[in-house]
Amino acid sequence: MTERRDLAAMLQPLVKSLIAAELRVLEEHGISMWSYVVLSALDDSPIRTQAALAEAIGADKTRIISTLDRLQEAGLISRQPDPEDRRARLLAITQDGRSARRAAQADIQANEDRVLAALSAADRQAFLRAAQALSAIPHEEIVG
Amino acid sequence: MTERRDLAAMLQPLVKSLIAAELRVLEEHGISMWSYVVLSALDDSPIRTQAALAEAIGADKTRIISTLDRLQEAGLISRQPDPEDRRARLLAITQDGRSARRAAQADIQANEDRVLAALSAADRQAFLRAAQALSAIPHEEIVG
DNA sequence: TATTGTTATACTCTATAACTATA
DNA sequence: TATAGTTATAGAGTATAACAATA
């Protein structure tokens, strides 16, 4: 392999910029990054409890509570006590939540597509394929 | 473009894992992430003042001072008053600093190569080429 | 006693402001 | 007065610990 910059040194500023762009879009849609992450997780696959949600998005369970409060207040998620285990709160995205998430995602990916247009079609496809593959590698396997 | 996950959502956990791996390697070498960033910047191109260094690595000037203190104490950089402007401190990496940086970088990239081996040779080359190209896009152009 | 969700506290990291010494 | 470097302070974000309710 020919000489190259560190992977993290290349990707970290890129990710930082992408997140900044995403925050700007989300602000227009009136939702925070944590809200978007939560809505996306609940939209992509059903998650029953708050602990499972926190685990799924790699957050601390204490960190998502205020986010869930706001999402519930805005009618973007529902949060009901589980009749079978009244300690737990059953989480679900609402139709409004789904709409909000998908509208935001469309704008976010439109901007990402604009950035990706800097690449050739072949490199763009390979880059997305590689990003997908690398993101599927477990944390522990990368840290070693 | 076919349906895909958000770019930031794919790359951010990857970068986080790469940084965790890097931190582990750096710990073995006895240097902090900020020290490594500073050494890399000074090794790659001469930088005269602390303000210019902070600017180059995207850090606050107040944030690098303790790092510079430690690097100087360890003999990895030199920091001398500029005779022509005694307010400024001329920075330079020492031979020991260069050795430390390059030894650390070799281990870091060896681990990155291990991760990149999950890709086909063609995708790996395209991914690195794309990462290089995308990381060269100015922050403002991505944020829009 | 163990677990879910919650609140309160402490800690880390970063940014802002104030200071000194030179110019 | 303006700038390079430094120190001190404050703020945001996160993690840790303690708590109430239920199992």
Ordered list of secondary-structure elements with their pairings:
2 copies of one chain form a homodimer.
Chain A: H1 7-29, H2 33-44, H3 50-57, H4 65-73, E1 77-82, E2 85-93, H5 95-116, H6 121-135, H7 139-143
Antiparallel strand pairs in A: 1-2
Chain B binds a DNA duplex (23 and 23 nucleotides) through strand 2.
Protein name (chains A, B): MarR family winged helix-turn-helix transcriptional regulator
Organism (chains A, B): Nonomuraea roseola
Domain HTH marR-type (chains A, B): 4-136
User: What is the strand content of chain A?
Assistant: 5-15%
**Biggest β-sheet: strands ordered side by side in the sheet of chain A:** 1-2
Shape of chain A: globular
Assign a percent range to the helix content of chain A: 55-70%
Largest interface: A-B, 53 and 53 residues
Annotated CATH topology of chain A: Arc Repressor Mutant, subunit A
Largest sheet of chain A: 2 strands, antiparallel
Low-pLDDT runs of 5+ residues of chain A are none
Report the count of strand segments of chain A: 2
Q: What is the CA-CA span between the terminal residues of chain A?
A: 21 Å
Q: From the structure provided, what is the oligomeric state, counting identical versus distinct chains?
A: homodimer
Task: State the helix count of chain A.
Answer: 7
Task: Name the CATH superfamily assignment of chain A.
Answer: Winged helix-like DNA-binding domain superfamily/Winged helix DNA-binding domain
**What value does the Rg of chain A take, in angstroms?**
18 Å
N-to-C series of helices and strands of chain A: HHHHEEHHH
What is the residue-averaged pLDDT of chain A? 96
CATH architecture of chain A: Orthogonal Bundle
Would you tell me the structural class of the helices and strands of chain A? mainly alpha
